[in-house]
Amino acid sequence: MFSIVNAGRAVEQRLEEALAPVGLTLTKFGMLLHLVEAGEPLSLSECAQKMSCVRSNITQLMDRLEADGLVQRVEDPQDRRAIRAAVTPLGAERQAAGAKEVTKVQAALAKTLSGTDPAALQTALSAVK
Amino acid sequence: MFSIVNAGRAVEQRLEEALAPVGLTLTKFGMLLHLVEAGEPLSLSECAQKMSCVRSNITQLMDRLEADGLVQRVEDPQDRRAIRAAVTPLGAERQAAGAKEVTKVQAALAKTLSGTDPAALQTALSAVK
DNA sequence: TCTATATAATTCATATATGAAGCAAGTTCG
DNA sequence: CGAACTTGCTTCATATATGAATTATATAGA
């Protein structure tokens, strides 16, 4: 059981290390990825859902992403309570650079697991979740 | 790759939920477990090594564990710089109670993974780490 | 022995995460 | 319509984590 926890943490750490030179953390990269994939500004509540976390966490994350110039809060004309997060050009650039690094980690990991049946591993891990 | 990260987080969360009724977090349980297993007070540097984290983290963790009455800082007569962490009776009691809950989670997880070859999974996950 | 260096712990700034409490703005219903 | 409820975000307290800077103590070497 602790193997699963440790393996998860080890992969997280590898990703953090790969993203650090790009100026991103795994959390920031994840948020940018969701925003880029969505193709439009998402409300902070939607962001919280995508990131599987509480909204107050997103408030703080957006503060940091905005301070980094990677995202901008924009008002929602449809709902004056809502605030949407829009990726800036710099944010999109960093996300793309991060994605390249993530792909490298993925390739390295695939090599490490070359002796393993990928489908079986996937099935097992999905069952846990 | 993200399956591994997600699976790890899912297991962590299950453990947190199982330990919460006992009044422990996974971090606190882990620290108590190391101390109980050691059978003697460990210096805070040794604690950091066991927990695979930096020492400043242990300083804070010990503050919380001491506030909970689960651990006590004791001076080291051999080295006046060092401070050792000693488990209190209450700490030992909680650790034992936590271990029972952890065992239950382990059993439930084994059931979930009943269709998987445990040795193969173990091998794959160990390779990642 | 005295100095330089290394080690032990703490403090501080910061990142990430949760959850409770609060305020503003929609929505529903009598 | 207006009160009650819900939703969206922020703020605050707290837990966990890192790393740089600081203080105290040990130890090695000239």
The major β-sheet of chain A equals: 3 strands, antiparallel
Number of structural domains of chain A: 1
The helix-strand sequence of chain A is HHEHHEEHH
Distance between the termini of chain A: 13 Å
Number of contiguous helices of chain A: 6
Structural class of chain A: mainly alpha
Q: Characterize the quaternary organization of these chains.
A: homodimer
Shape of chain A: globular
Known CATH architecture of chain A: Orthogonal Bundle
In what order do the strands lie side by side in the largest sheet of chain A? 1-3-2
For this structure, what is the CATH class of chain A? Mainly Alpha
Largest interface chains and counts: A-B, 30 and 30 residues
Structural Rg of chain A: 17 Å
Describe the structure.
2 copies of one chain form a homodimer. The first copy, chain A, is mainly α and 129 residues long. Chain A has one domain (2-128): Winged helix-like DNA-binding domain superfamily/Winged helix DNA-binding domain (Arc Repressor Mutant, subunit A, Orthogonal Bundle), CATH 1.10.10. Chain A is 67% helix and 9% strand. Chain A is built from 6 helices and 3 strands; from the N terminus they run H-H-E-H-H-E-E-H-H. A 3-stranded antiparallel β-sheet of chain A has the order 1-3-2. In chain A, strand 2 (71-75) and strand 3 form a beta hairpin. In chain A, helix 2 (26-38) crosses helix 5 and helix 3 packs across helix 4 (55-67). The longest helix of chain A has 24 residues, at 89-112. The radius of gyration of chain A is 17 Å and the shape is globular. The first copy, chain A, starts with a helix and ends with a helix. In chain A, 26% of the residues are buried. The mean pLDDT of chain A is 95. Chain A binds chain B through residues 1, 3-12, 15, 105-106, 109, 112-113, 115-117, 120-129, and chain B through 1, 3-12, 15, 105-106, 109, 112-113, 115-117, 120-129. The structure holds a DNA duplex (30 and 30 nucleotides).
